[in-house]
Input
Amino acid sequence: MLLEVSGLHAGYGELEVLRGISLTVEAGEMVAVLGPNGAGKSTLLRTISRIDTNVRSGSIRFDGHDLLRASTVQGVGFGCLHVPEGRQLFTELSVDDNIRLGAYSVDRKTIEADVAAVYAQFPVLAERKSQTAFSLSGGEQQMLAIGRALMARPRMLMLDEPSTGLAPQVVEVIFGILAGLKRSGTAVLIVEQNAYLTLQHADRAYVLENGEIALSGTASELSADPRVRAIYLGGSPDEA
Amino acid sequence: MLQLLVAGLTVGSGYALVALGIHIILRATRIVNFAQGEFTIVGGLLALTFVQLFHVNTWFALAGATLAGFVLGLLYERLVLRPAGRSGEIPLTIATLGTVFILLYGHALVPGWGSLPQPLPAFTGDASDAITVGGVSIQVQSIWVLGLLLAALVVLYLFFERTYYGKAIRAAANNPTGAKLVGIDVTGARAVSVGLAIALAAYGGTIIGPITLVGGAGGTAIAIKGFVGAIVGGLESPLGCVAGGLLVGVVEKLIQGLPGVSYGVSDPVVYSLLLVALLLRPQGLFGARSAVRD
Amino acid sequence: MIARLRADTRTLPILALIVVAFGIFAAGNATFAQAGTYAAIFSIAAIGLSLLLGNVNQISLGAAGFFGIGAYAVASLTTWWNLPAWLSWPLATLIGITGATIVGLGLGFIALRFRGHYLAMATLTFGLICAGIFHETKFLGGAIGIEDIPYPRFGALTISGYPAYWFAWILALGIALLTLNLLRGRSGRAFEAIRNDELAAEVLGVPTRRYKILAFAYSGALAGLAGAVYAAFLGIVVPDAVGPQLSFSLLLMVVLGGSGGVSGALIGAALLGFLDISGHQFENTREVVYGVLVIAVVIAAPNGAFGLIRSRFRPGHPERSAEGRVVEGQPRSSTFALPLDKLGVTSSVVEVAHVTQRFGGLVAVNDVSFTLTRGTLTSLIGPNGAGKTTLFNAISGIGRPTEGRVTIGGIDVTGRQPHRVAALGVGRTFQNARLFGEMTVLENVIAGAFRTEHTSFGADLFALPSSRRSEREATDRARDTLVRLGLEPLASTLAKDLAFGDRRRVELARATASNPWLLLVDEPAAGLNAGERATLTADLLKLRDAGMTLLLIEHDMRLVMSISERVMVLKFGTMIADGTADAVRNDPAVVAAYLGTAG
Output
């Protein structure tokens, strides 16, 4: 098990968002975290990458390390990379700088090859190499955020709604890249709004509701499960 | 006229470096370091100490003072800015004001420094050496000041624009969360930024030393004129800060050179310039609009 | 706020006693008496600065400018004109205060444009310009200043030396009392609300800009008064004495003593006076110590000396607020009374017409139109980033829509400032429950009734009967609201100490305290557990049944579907569905928006 979360209770200040979350991710698999807004999906990722939540109880273990005792920077050192909602790009710096800085935490001997690989995956970024990140469109920023994260040769890549603002073809490219990562042994933990599409590509999924795991199973099981829709849109499953 | 211009650029170089230091700390901590002028004075005095204690020439003193300034900046960030910052932005600003008090009144207590301005040996030859260009007499020291200003700007430009680590520091200031997600130590980057800014202050205080003397109570005036320069030029733009500082110096000397005008008038005029700039174009000549408002 | 001001109210008499005791002690000692006198004078200015910094959170580094205006007004006028003694100083003082107030209004207006360090610099510049003007103006004596200023004289009594101590302290304590009146009334509550959360204050109907300007003017007036007394007692005014040095000293007093309220200012002024005298020989070291003290205080005791004292003597048990009768536990009426709003809202419909909101290249709200009928509960749903909160903002006046029109009760409110929209009877809650943390639950809800209170700055200042009556009514109204929502037991709890589930309900209570007829509720269920959601559902239905019109943004679908008569769905700023809950839930476009489509 690469990532093991158990009994996690966390939130912001007084507010408890995650109420006892337990999940696992293995190397080389893609796990989706689904659920309606406010369910705690983003909070889960932010807690794993230790950005800004307040953990009350529970544990998070990544590759043998206790992430709750680690900082974001240390997590990155362990190979846990997070592409957050809002991307968090360096808006004043160029596309090229953003990509290169992605390799800050790793050995930079092969940086030129790595950068070239990112440009190969996302040709539009190569076109805009010297523009500032701020000037990019939403979709291009998304690609840049993913490219930057790839530079750190992650063992696990966490993505928060990466399809936001992207045209369907580009979303396919993203999923293609993620599939490639899977094949090379990297784990992918993906939070998405677009449940059905994500379930087509993921191996397993968890569905969150009000901070708890309401459903879990393989992607094919959940695709056919009417309870998923009930969770998103209210009402009971028989009405679906 | 040319003489006034050169004199203005010379004293303006000091303001420009103050303004640039303010800009760097602003980028890193989001507040204005009101103590920047005092650090400039202290920097010059540090150089003096190097000269008097170690009997080195002003060049070595410059290097020593700049290095000492860097260390001082690291201490400042660790002991004052970081703890005060936890209480909020206004308390942090007040803490920089407290630092003004400490440095302004405290520097006179250091043995060898005293409260009166003292001369720093010239960089080359004698402080009063002058050359004649186009019928106008220009102090050799002024040329050094401008040259050293340029040198500092080039070094800083190369560091922040062309080195990996320099860009990482900018990234940390631009987006601390994003920086952490990439593995950059944001707190360390902030400390280095402050260190650089104070090193710059020390550098500035030293290079104008041979002409305008080091020490004395001029710190507040230099600080304020540095601010004016930063605001007029654009607080959020490094080029703006430098240009603004030079501009303030030139304006000051031009006003002082006007016949029949008392020396002290230049100050209120400069301050009014600040208010006008704040009212009409708070982002400065080179700044972008979004920086200022709520 | 109640806690802090209660401490002030109790401390003030103690300080007065200390002043009297010291005065008697200093009867034979001219140095002590003089030190005490100047402590009083500076404390007047410090009180103004304390209000500005501590109650409204505006930093001012130019207080000396106002002080100088008062000082020079007295200095120049009393040495120039030939009025009878009993008129000379008071009239000059009045002129000085008026001048300072007008300039204060101006500075306040300018200050509105700035935040944070820009504000600090703007006020610093103001102080420097004043100092420069004082220094260079021949009429004001230039660098030398003005001397031989006559003491105030009333008949046979000349106010100088020992009598000056008493005169100055009576003035200072009087000002402290007036300021305390102000802070305990509606104006003080407005200040505190602005300090805690300016946006939340605006949507309650507090005209934040007006109050910030007032705060500057008031603190300027006080500093001017202090300067006027200073000039007459010292007999000399030199520009250096009213320059940035003084501004920093005043700031020092307020930081050391504690800002917000009045006792901190008095303590700080006395403290600094004491340090000044005892450190007299150690000129430079003394100032270095001040610097170190300021930094230490800012790091370790941000509420100053008074803050430390207060935390030692924490009030034992919560009491009821200063005014207002004890409520027996039953609201006076069982429903929310919804009279026709006095402000002329005659029809009762909310109309949003073709509203579009653009931020640069991003279209957040795209040509949205709908009409709300009075007394209905409508929900606005949609995936993340759909523009729902932006739409709320456009309705409540936070940001002007790029295109389109919003009409409330027949009145066009497009682009109006939030407090003016609120004044029409519109309430609003926020995604993250923006409560005024430093105020109690009761005070928060009283603040909610702001638009229904009718009293003025002056009435508050002098604690006139009209002010007190208004305060009582507002407090009663607030208590009723708390009782109705079952929150009465929490009335004296500080908002920042509340458990999360209670925060939302208190915000709801605050938003409904003024009996708005339209309520915009933004994600009220976020973070609530099942039991709390049930209570919330009951509360919302209660409000609807009482005749309130509700528009709800919510993600909890079960809750939305169970209580909404109508559901509107927004996706990427466009309205894609609008109908009954059932219709919307089964609309394929809505399903696709939420769950996506397979490939």
